[in-house]
Automatic annotation (TrEMBL):
Name the record gives this protein: Probable branched-chain-amino-acid aminotransferase
Pfam families: Aminotran_4
Molecular function GO terms recorded: L-isoleucine-2-oxoglutarate transaminase activity; L-leucine-2-oxoglutarate transaminase activity; L-valine-2-oxoglutarate transaminase activity
Keyword hit for RNA-binding: no
Cofactor: pyridoxal 5'-phosphate
EC number(s) recorded for this UniProt protein: 2.6.1.42
Top-rank taxon: Bacteria
C-alpha cells in the first residue's frame, strides 16, 4: 500500500513521522475520513470544508498541500487500485523537537500531513444494513468541543469496546439524559414518520453524511426535526439509525436490550440509505 506523508508517496513500511509529532504526544491533530465507492470520492467537498474549519478552530496552519488535497486523494486511489473503501487524512500541528504544552511558533514548525487508504470491498452492501445494528448507551464524558474532528479518540474507542463486550455493535453517548451521538456517527430516531436528530452545536460532530441525509430527507418531503432527544424517547421510537461517512445510513434495531419496532430495520432508514447512496454516487468525484 502506498501512503502519503508530507509530499511523498511511500511504501507503507517507509511512511513515518517523528516521535515528537504533537499528534502523538498531545493528540494535537485533526482528521477526516472520506469514503470511496467505485474508485470515486463521496462528499469530498464537505470533508475538505470541515477540515478547514477544524484547523481554524485550533489555530492550526493549513498544510502546504491543502489546495492539492483532491489530487492527492485521487492519486492514492490510483496508486492503490482502490475500488471501495476509505481515505484517512490526518493533519497535526507538527513536531517541535521538544515536548511542550505551548504551541510551537508556526514560523518554525510545519504541520504534518498524512493520508492512507483502507480497502473495504463491497462497502455499500454491508450485511449489517439489512439486519440493523445493536447499540448500548454509555455516559458521554468527552470534552466540550466535539464539533472539532480531533484525533482524541480514546473514549469513543473504549465505548466501542464496551459495546462489543456487551454483545452489541456500537455505543450511543448520553449526556444529562439526552443522546448526543454515536461513538463515530450521528444518531437519529424516527417517531410517527418524523426523523429526529440532535441540533448542531459544540456537543456533536457536524457530520457530513448528516448534512446530506437531512437535505435528501427534506427534498423527499420527509419530516425532519433537529432537537435533542432522550434515551427513553429513543427506546420508545419506531426506528433508529446512525449516519457516518463509512457506514452511510445504518439502521439501529436495539438500544440497551430494548427492541425497536419488530426488531428489523423499518421503512425510513433503509429508504434514506438508498437515496443517500444513489445521490452520493451520482455526485462522486
Ligand atoms: N460523530 C462522530 C463522533 C464521528 O466521529 C463521526 C465520524 O467519524 C460522525 C459523527 C459522522 O460524521 P461524518 O458523517 O462526517 O463521517
Amino acid at each position: 500500500r502506498t501512503v502519503y506523508v508530507n509530499g511523498d508517496y511511500l511504501p507503507e513500511e517507509d511512511a513515518k513521522v517523528s516521535v515528537f509529532d504533537r499528534s502523538f504526544l498531545m493528540a494535537d491533530g485533526v482528521y477526516e475520513v472520506t469514503s470511496v465507492l467505485g474508485g470515486k470520492l463521496i462528499d469530498f467537498d464537505g470533508h475538505l470544508a470541515r477540515l478547514e474549519r477544524s484547523l481554524g478552530e485550533l489555530d492550526m496552519q493549513k498544510p502546504e498541500a491543502f489546495d492539492d488535497l483532491l489530487e492527492i486523494h485521487r492519486e492514492l486511489v490510483r496508486r492503490n487500485d482502490l475500488e471501495d473503501g476509505m481515505i484517512y487524512l490526518q493533519v497535526s500541528r507538527g513536531s517541535a523537537g521538544d515536548r511542550d504544552f505551548i504551541f510551537p511558533d508556526p514560523k518554525e514548525v510545519k504541520p504534518t500531513l498524512v493520508l492512507f487508504t483502507q480497502s473495504k470491498p463491497g462497502l455499500a452492501d454491508s450485511p449489517a444494513a439489512k439486519t440493523g445494528i445493536k447499540v448500548i448507551s454509555i455516559e458521554d464524558i468527552r470534552w466540550g468541543r466535539r464539533d472539532i474532528k480531533t484525533v482524541q479518540l480514546l473514549y469513543p474507542s473504549m465505548g466501542k469496546m464496551m459495546a462489543i463486550k456487551a454483545g452489541c455493535d456500537d455505543a450511543w453517548l448520553v449526556e444529562d439524559g439526552f443522546v448526543t451521538e454515536g461513538t463515530s456517527n450521528n444518531a437519529y430516531i424516527v417517531k410517527d414518520g418524523k426523523i429526529i436528530t440532535r441540533q448542531l452545536s459544540n456537543d456533536i460532530l457536524h457530520g457530513i453524511t448528516r448534512a446530506a441525509v437531512l437535505r435528501f430527507a427534506r427534498e423527499a418531503q420527509m419530516e425532519v426535526e433537529e432537537r435533542s432527544f432522550t434515551l427513553d424517547e429513543a427506546k420508545a421510537a419506531d426506528e433508529a439509525f446512525i449516519t457516518s461517512a463509512s457506514q452511510f445510513v445504518m439502521p439501529v434495531v436495539e438500544i440497551d436490550g430494548v427492541t425497536l419496532g419488530d426488531g428489523a430495520p423499518g421503512k425510513v432508514a433503509p429508504r434514506l440509505r438508498e437515496i443517500y447512496l444513489d445521490e452520493s454516487l451520482k455526485n462522486a468525484i
